[in-house]
Design a protein that fits this description.
The protein has 283 residues and is α/β, with parallel strands linked by helices. It is 42% helix and 19% strand.
Length: 283
């Protein structure tokens, strides 16, 4: 696996996604692959309108719609190529040693899945071009992608910059232990201060597992600041994030635990709207 798949579009997150992808590629010394997906526009299919009232099979309106679809497709291809060229230039100027680009006619999830076999990391923005400048919006594509892929995902925030620390919300379950293993083996988060945090969730032996995880991270070379919290999970994590100036959130994907639900379940949008931090999702 060698590619850092970095998804670019015309959204307000384009530069931030590029910068995040550049950081990942340089940190892991991997090829930066910029991906632009041209998704099908949900307009009426011309053939399906030939039987509509007032629309004959040879009407000038049908012909005009067909021409507009063709022009739209060509324009999307041109604009996409220009975005990819600009992204490649930005990466080259940022000393990326290996930069590639590709354009696909499909939705973004399908395009990523097609390329995943040779992917080391996936970098996406927290919302797409359809959200305009609504930087609080969380794109529905994020959950679709995370559920479909087995590759780590970095969700870039507005104003992304290289982080100096990260918070790992640890709940003592299998997905959290897997995330710890990926952190240690992955390399991306090395040399960043790890804030290891858990909220007492009544799980058996959680305090013991928490101490074991802290020890494992320290032995693996991480500077660890560990905190065992009490109270409401959402409020405790949010308060800790603010008080300790956390710069990145790290989480295992789709655990059934309450902590995971804060980030990737029913409270995902609520948490992300209030944090505006980059997030790494580990499988």
């Amino acid at each position: 696996m060698k590619n850092i798949i970095t998804c670019v579009d015309s959204s307000g997150y384009a530069n931030d996604v590029c910068n995040a992808g550049i950081w990942v590629a340089n940190k892991l010394d991997k090829t930066l692959l910029f991906l632009h997906a041209i998704e099908k526009v949900n307009t009426p299919v011309v053939e399906n309108l030939s039987g509509s009232i007032g629309l004959g099979a040879h009407s000038s309106l049908l012909e005009e719609m067909s021409l507009l679809d063709e022009q739209r497709s060509k324009l999307a291809l041109t604009v996409g190529n220009e975005m990819l060229e600009q992204a490649c230039k930005l990466a080259t100027d940022s000393n990326c040693s290996s930069v590639e680009k590709t354009q696909r006619h499909s939705d973004i999830t399908e395009a990523i899945c097609d390329l995943e076999d040779d992917a080391r990391f996936i970098v996406i923005g927290r919302s797409g071009e359809n959200h305009g400048k609504n930087f609080k919006a969380l794109g529905s594509h994020i959950e679709h992608i995370i559920r479909q892929v087995n590759t780590p995902v970095l969700i870039a925030n507005k104003g992304f910059r290289e982080p100096e620390n990260f918070m790992l919300a640890y709940d003592g379950r299998e997905t959290a232990d897997t995330a710890v293993k990926r952190i240690i083996e992955g390399g991306l988060l090395h040399n960043l201060t790890c804030h290891l945090v858990t909220v007492n969730n009544k799980q058996s032996a959680i305090a013991e597992k928490f101490e074991q995880t802290k020890k494992l991270l320290i032995e693996s070379g991480f500077e660890v600041k560990a905190s065992f919290l009490e109270g409401n999970i959402y409020d405790a994590l949010l308060d800790y994030k603010i008080e300790n100036k956390i710069e990145m959130l790290v989480m295992g994907a789709f655990s059934r635990s309450k902590i995971a639900q804060v980030f990737l379940g029913s409270n995902t949008l609520k948490m992300m709207e209030k944090t505006n931090l980059p997030m790494v999702i580990l499988r």
